Each structure stands twice: as structure tokens, then as C-alpha cells.
Amino acid sequence: MKIEQLIKSKIERNYFFITGKVQMNTKYFIDEIEKGIRDENNKSFQTNLISEMTDWKYFLSNKKFIDVALKFNDLVEQEDLTEGKRWTLQEAWGFKQSIGNYTQSHDHFPAMVSGAIMLSKHQQSLLFPEIKKELKCEPGNFVLFSSYLKHGNKRNLLDSCRYGLSFNYMNKFEN
Predict the structure, then answer these.
(1) Measured between alpha carbons, how far apart are the two ends of the chain, in Å?
(2) Cβ partners under 8 Å of residue 155, min gap 6
(3) What would the 3-class secondary structure string for 129-144 be?
(4) pLDDT (tens digit per residue) in 119-139
(5) How many Cβ atoms sit within 10 Å of the Cβ of residue 36?
(6) Which domains does the chain have, with CATH numbers?
(7) Based on the number of CB atoms within 10 Å of its own CB, is 126 exposed (0-12), middle (13-18) or buried (19 or more)?
(8) Which of 32, 36, 31, 29 lies closest to 51 in space, CA to CA?
(9) Residue 4: enclosing H or E segment and its boundaries?
């Protein structure tokens, strides 16, 4: 084998990062997450979330989640976050991070747009180290972001739980 050239480097890349607050019944969703993590199809401790979580599609047929998601759908369209590509909401799950739990650094590629909504007040923030941003864990705080952005959080050192919802918009023709 003869290697002519090997380059390992970084390039600048366009991304989006939108934060805000959404009104929703956080207690309802926390109760639903508690149900979902007891379901036999849960993904607890099987993913980058080193914690309890529901199945990837647990909230896709939940009427109250869909009501909230429609607000995000409008934002995705209004800001053309998918750059004209056809998209659909493909995944929506909930998580519970108890003492000792954390999220390994990861991304959501090949999703086009990813999001998270915090449901409880907690000191454990969602960190985006590449862009030096974080989402504070306050009920209703949300983020929509370019799915290739790495994110995660540190180990929960408190004896209280952090609850949230995450979701992905995918290219309609790739799934």
C-alpha cells in the first residue's frame, strides 16, 4: 500500500442553535416518562444516555406531545432549518437522570434537526462544548440544534432527578 496523502483537519461549518421556553404541562410528561421507563421496550442504559429512558418513538403518538411538537414544526419551517429538504418527526423519547447518571458526548446525525425540552429544575445542564453553549435545566427550556453538534452532560451528583424530552427530525426520504 502506498498512501499519497492523509489529512486530518477541521473545517468551519454552518450550524444553528435556538433556545427558548415553551409552555407545557411538565408534570404530565414526567409521569409519562415514568410509565415509559417501566415499559419492556425502554432503552434504559442502552444508549449514550447512561440513565433511564423510554423507547425512541415513545412520544410520537402522544397527543399532548404532538401539540407541543407542532410549535417546533412551525419554527423548523419558518427558519428553513432543513434547507428546503422534506422532513418528518421520526423520534421522540423521554429520559430520567438520577444520581450518578449522565449523558456521554454524542450527536444525532443523520437527523436534520434535533431538539430537547427540559421538564424539571436541576443543576445538570445540557452542554454543547464545540460551540460553548449550554441549556439550563428549567421547566420548559428548549433547544433546537444542528444534529451533528456534539452534546452531553456531566454526572448527576444530586439526589434529585433531571427529566427531559428529546426528538429528531429526519429526511423524509431517507427513513
Answers:
(1) 37
(2) 100, 101, 102
(3) CCCCEEEEECCCEEEE
(4) 999 999 999 999 999 999 999
(5) 24
(6) 17-171 (2.60.120.620)
(7) buried
(8) 36
(9) none
Residue 91, number of CB atoms within 10 A of its CB: 19
- What does the alpha-carbon distance between residue 68 and residue 4 come to, in Å, rounded to a whole number? 52
pLDDT tens digits, one per residue of 105-117: 999 999 999 999 9
d(CA 157, CA 159): 7
Alpha carbon 138 to its chain's center:
15
pTM, whole model, 2 decimals?
A: 0.92
Contact in structure between 174 and 109 (CB atoms under 8 Å): no
Please check the confidence at residue 170 and state whether its pLDDT lies above 70: yes
Name residue 121's amino acid: K
- Find out whether 59 and 119 touch, Cβ atoms under 8 Å: no
Please give the Cα distance from 24 to 26 (Å, whole number): 6
Contact 79, 69 (CB under 8 A): no
Mean pLDDT confidence for 90-99? 98
The three grid cell numbers given for residue 165, joined into one nine-digit string: 424530552
Q: How far is CA 60 from the centre of its chain?
A: 14
Report pLDDT for 172.
80
